[in-house]
Design a protein that fits this description.
This protein is mostly helical and about 210 residues long. It has helices spanning about 5-10, 15-40, 45-55, 55-65, 75-80, 90-130, 135-145, 185-200; strands at about 150-160, 165-170, 175-180. It has eight helices and three strands. It is globular.
């Protein structure tokens, strides 16, 4: 697997980024499908919570670490010296690239089976602790612990009252750090906060 830092030092070689893009989509699809089929009584908001709890940088990096992917990533000299093979963002991207490659080589059925083996238990575990997945509180705690300003939520609704959908953006230090959608303001805010938590976890100094 080739990280872009290695490709910059070896012109002419493609990086993992296209496979990461594909793998991210496959991972989201399979996780959503697993949650939808296993928990028919859960609401859209709860299903979103499961997906966010499984498909995030921290969780994916843990899986990649368990698989030992770090040792197989080609890194540029600077990135390697900085411990890039252990960085959550690089590990998570590598896992997505592997999933993308499985999809390309083996098709949707094989990719589904691989993702199910990798995240199936996490889907169940996340569902069991849905009540703990208050991402707004988690985000607030992360920012407070870092001495940063409290997050601010910007919400807009679209559509008639009986089927309105909401989009929320969470702003941290004047910058949008997460976006979320839902059928209620709460669901949209929680999805945006979950995205912000993942974004902050991926920051180099996080």
């Amino acid at each position: 697997m080739a990280h872009r830092s290695w490709c910059a030092e070896h012109p002419g070689h493609p990086s993992n980024e296209r496979l990461e893009f594909l793998g991210d989509a496959v991972l989201g699809w399979v996780t959503a499908d697993l949650a939808f089929r296993r928990f028919p009584a859960l609401s859209e908001g709860d299903l979103t919570g499961i997906r966010k709890g499984v498909v995030n940088t921290t969780a994916l990096a843990e899986i990649a670490g368990d698989l030992g992917l770090g040792a197989h990533i080609k890194l540029g000299k600077g990135e390697a010296a900085a411990g890039g093979s252990a960085k959550p963002t690089i590990l998570a991207d590598a896992l997505e690239a592997v999933i993308g490659a499985v999809y390309v080589d083996g098709g949707s059925t094989e990719a589904y089976d691989v993702v199910q083996r990798l995240v199936g238990d996490r889907v169940m575990a996340t569902a069991e602790r849905l009540d703990e997945l208050d991402y707004k509180s988690t985000l607030q705690e992360i920012l407070a612990g870092a001495g940063r300003l409290a997050p601010r939520y910007e919400i807009e609704g679209v559509g008639p009252d009986h089927e309105k959908r909401y989009t929320a953006h969470v702003v941290v230090d004047g910058v949008v750090r997460g976006r979320g959608d839902g059928r209620s303001k709460r669901t949209a805010e929680q999805a945006a906060a979950a995205a912000a938590v993942a974004t902050l976890a991926a920051e180099p100094d996080a």
